[in-house]
Design a protein that fits this description.
The chain is mainly α. About 65% of the residues lie in helices and about 0% in strands. The strands form two sheets. It has a two-stranded antiparallel sheet with strand order 1-4. It has a two-stranded antiparallel sheet with strand order 2-3. GO terms for molecular function: monoamine transmembrane transporter activity; neurotransmitter transmembrane transporter activity; quaternary ammonium group transmembrane transporter activity.
Length: about 525
């Protein structure tokens, strides 16, 4: 009986059928990037808001004030009396009642222009000129509540983490395409509920679930694409990353055109329902079917692939070799039971963690500067495009391991140099930091491909999901690490980033080279990789 790779070679390793499936599933990269980075626009800080004095709403209605007039009576005297106060996080410690004059409401309290004003911290009575422009104004995530905006992104990353374990396991047990379709449905439904969440608690719950299902769509589409092509075409996994970058570049355009956060949330969530149409055009992974002892279904799909590719399978291909490895439900012990699987798993987990931590840290560092948010975000995405093209140019010529290691080391050295460059040449600091981001982006994209190629089919989706869960952990830690260490010394985070990246670059050189090698079917195949 022929092996799967032999049948695939005769059916076409990257023909019309695979190109169609590849293009369709790549759209998932765009929608996943929307979810990944949407908080930047959903949580924009409101331009103009202030803390309302108790009783001001009733008095404003009685006196017929506009919001601007109420603000003048509320904030202007406060600013005159205390130049350091903007009226956003504190207010005058007074209460307005019906006895207050509409013409001069503060005259009742004497001379408030002195510097001995009594102030009170604002807790919940904010007024926004654009109350529905972002979740910050919708749920009062300002002043003492500002940390809750960071919580919303941390909750999303926790959802990614949970999705990596639960849906990664489910995809290995119940099938790639089934979990992909269910995940797309889940992302869409949860996205709609998030858009109309009546309070912040409901918002967090369904943002977490959207993260769970979002990770399911991203990981399963990646695995499906790499499992239906030949070993020489697996670098198309890198091309999927280009669609993620395109999503990063498209997102600011959506946010610019849509004025409310609910509109943005719906615009980035509803496209997931279109992916349900893939049920009729994207088949189950034949590699996975073979591991579940479903050779007839796998062969039927291979005949269909050959037909669409203009090929014809030989009549003696009546059955495909099924993996001799006993099929069982995957667990973490399967990933560390044998020596080379254990080495690969630990190095890949560290590589995922480091890539995510440094990538998000550098993105946030570059985003601290002022300017046009939409343009700056677009440019930050455009910077990532050369990374994918550099990988496509080098990875099939010199292999995976060397570019993987060098990109990490370059990122580490760039971070170290940036930390010690003088502040009076900001253009040079920005240029070197951008080089660091280019390096870590390359490392981030290569780890996807290497992770796929170093696990057997029976454990591939679970192994990729488990290792990439460290990426989500890095995403949770990144903002806290960046801002806490920057409070001690602004450049200290870059020192930490440089150490992590260089160590990662050296460790990945211990991984086996997988250029031109068929995807391993069993743990024994992995152990034989040198």
């Amino acid at each position: 009986m022929p092996s799967f790779d032999e049948v695939l070679k005769e059916a076409g390793e990257f023909g019309r059928f695979q190109k169609r499936v590849f293009f369709l599933l790549c759209q998932t990269g765009i929608t996943f990037s929307f979810l990944f980075a949407s908080v930047v626009f959903l949580g924009q800080a409101p331009d103009n808001y202030w803390c309302r004095i108790p009783g001001a709403a009733e008095l404003s209605e009685r006196c017929g004030w506009t919001l601007e007039e109420e603000r003048n009576f509320t904030v202007l005297p406060l600013h005159l009396g205390n130049g350091s106060s903007s009226g956003e996080c504190e207010r005058l410690d007074v209460v307005w009642d019906t006895s207050i004059s509409c013409a001069s409401p503060l005259s009742h309290y004497g001379n408030l222009s002195a510097r001995n004003l009594l102030l009170a911290t604002c807790h919940d009575n904010w007024v926004y000129k654009q109350p529905h422009s972002s979740i910050t104004s919708e749920y009062n995530l300002v002043c003492g509540n500002a940390w809750m905006l960071d919580l919303s992104q941390a909750v999303l990353n926790l959802g990614f983490l949970a999705g990596a374990f639960t849906l990664g396991y489910a995809a290995d047990r119940y099938g790639r395409i089934l979990i992909y379709l269910l995940s797309c449905l889940g992302v869409g439904i949860c996205g709609i509920i998030v858009a109309f969440a009546p309070n912040f608690t409901v918002f967090l719950i369904f943002r977490f679930l959207q993260g769970v299902f979002g990770k399911g769509t991203w990981m399963t589409c990646y695995v499906i694409v790499t499992e239906i092509v030949g070993s020489d075409q697996r670098i198309i996994g890198i091309a999927i990353q280009i669609f993620f970058t395109l999503g990063i570049m498209i997102l600011p355009g959506i946010a610019y055109l849509v004025p409310t956060w609910q509109g943005i949330q719906l615009a980035i969530s509803l496209p997931n329902f279109l992916f349900l149409l893939y049920y009729w055009v994207v088949p189950e992974s034949p590699r996975w079917l073979l591991t579940r002892r479903k050779g007839e279904k796998a062969l039927k799909i291979m005949h269909n692939i050959a037909k669409h590719n203009g090929k014809y399978l030989s009549p003696h291909y009546s059955e495909i070799t099924v993996s001799n490895e006993e099929v069982s439900n995957p667990s973490f012990l399967d990933l560390v039971r044998t020596p080379r699987m254990r080495r690969n798993t630990l190095i890949l987990m560290y590589a995922w963690f480091t890539s995510a931590l440094i990538y998000q840290g550098l993105v946030m560092r570059l985003g601290i500067v002022g300017g046009n948010l939409y343009l700056d975000f677009f440019i930050s995405g455009a910077v990532e495009l050369p990374a994918a093209f550099l990988i496509l140019v080098t990875i099939d010529r010199i292999g995976r391991r060397l570019p993987f290691g060098i990109s990490n080391i370059v990122a580490g050295i760039a971070c170290l140099i940036t930390a010690f460059l003088p502040e009076d040449i900001p253009w040079l600091k920005t240029t070197v930091a951008t080089l660091g981001r280019l390096g870590i982006t390359m490392a981030f994209e290569i780890v996807y491909l290497v992770n796929i190629e170093l696990y057997p089919t029976t454990l591939r989706n679970f192994g990729v999901s488990l290792c990439s869960s460290l990426c989500d952990l890095g995403g949770i830690i990144a903002p806290f690490l960046l801002f806490r260490l920057a409070a001690i010394w602004l450049e200290l985070p870059l020192i930490i980033f440089s150490i992590l990246a260089v160590v990662c670059g050296l460790l990945v050189l211990l991984l086996p080279e997988t250029k031109g090698i068929s995807l391993p079917e069993t743990v024994e195949d992995v152990e034989q990789l040198s």
